[in-house]
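Sample A.
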Amino acid sequence: MPELKYKRILLKLSGEALGGEAGFGINVSEAEAIAKRVKEVHEMGVQVAIVIGAGNLWRGKQGLDRGMDRATADYMGMLGTMMNALGLMDALERQNVYTRVMSAIEMRAIAEPYIRRRAIRHLEKGRVVIFGAGTGNPFFSTDTAAALRATEIDADVVIKATKVDGVYDSDPKKNPKASKFDTLSYIEVLNRRLEVMDSTAITHCMEHNVPILVLNLWDAEALPAALRGEKIGTIVNGR
């Protein structure tokens, strides 16, 4: 068993990760592909917690543009994260990975209420924990939920899963000369307005010294290599 640089991680997934090429709805094949990635690192001995967004099911901006109340739009998004969490839980358990979904909003029929000490105990027992319903409060994103839960469970790193191999100074799909960063400080991310996570999440990680690693989850080797300490993706820290 190789020495691990990170032994407890918070994996942040966008809702679109489950949407497949269409980017909308829950694609069972995509859920299975993500579950296989998680299973691989789980079998390395890594404790895995997950926060997932809901952009594949609900875009609050669409409602806001039509005059919807912001809090209502955000609560709808929280419900969307629970649908994604249950879909991912099912995919993981079909891979024989014991999984628990914990919700920031009580839904006792389908998920455990979020209790910090219980979440940590699940991780210690080798279960994957999926945190649903964001922070449980409107006006906060799932990026912020990921940063908050990472500090609460004392995660070694927040891993932001994307479909590019790190953070660039411009969109590499539009600019072939875009330059990739190997490392960044929290302040640089904020000052450059780089789209790593939202500013509240970045500030929270900065205040609590939680590193953020941005990598391509769809590269089969990237996540295991990063956990072994290899230079993968872009690391955001205090430098």
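Sample B.
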Amino acid sequence: MKDLDLSPATPYSGKYAGYTIEKGKLSFDLKYLIVKRKLDSQNQIFIDQFTFGDKVESPDATKLPVKLAIALLKDRKGEIKLDLPVTGSLDDPKFSVWRVILKIIVNLISKAATSPFSLLGAVLGGGEELSFVEFDFGSTTIMEANAKKLQIITKALHDRPSLKMDIEGHVDMEKDREGLKQYLFQRKVKAQKLKEMVRKGQPAASVDEIKIEPAEYGKYLKMAYKEEKFPKPKNVIGMAKDLPVPEMEKLILTHTEVKEGDLRTLASQRAMKVKDFIQKSGQVEPEKIFILEPKSLSPEKKEKVKDSRVDFKLK
């Protein structure tokens, strides 16, 4: 069967899906093999340019997100391709090919509601792991494993014009606080080397790009320590005394304060980094991605997943 116009099915769609059908064509390519009453079949379903129309108030309409399911399944060409294998015994009075196919389709729509990234992963690879990217504590750097995930998500958003995504940054309240302290501490040391480079006429660079070699670390740490405003241990004549490296490190870290506002900024910067990564591909329109202000800096707990992460939501 080829190019069956779906718009006449609007009465059924409105009643059970809750939307009219604006347009769309349906094609089937069926291959059935029956050996000794055992059925082995391939049901290749092709839906072209399927588009829901107006919302219909119906008490029988499903509460499942049918529009999201269509957005996940429909590619940039407006095509949905489903390969639905069905096997069973013709002697089983409860066996029905179309009942099985209907169940598979309902399961697909249910998957869109409960695990949209699993449904997306079934098409592109990646599964539920695509629903987040993790970060090192105190960091906004996108790691290589994250970059691969984001490339898959970018492709998905590009290939599915109706699909949109929310981005929400989060932090681990304890570990990110310590990680951010370490980051700020390293910046203080690097800033000393940067100042010296500028005094010597060398081109200015970002503090984060400055590299401190082991042999020069003590020198720049001591310079950073001297600039700190907290009270320092003094010698017998009242002058700030020289301290070993570990003690200078400990004192600077102890007096480096990370407030909740700093953690909120970290969460926001993570979300922005992810958005920028996707946007730089040039494949995804800006209006398809939204950064949300997190209701809580700590995300919903996930087993074996860090709280230092950015979560995604498809819609």
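B remarks: DSSP finds nine helices and eight strands in the chain. The longest helix spans residues 175-199.
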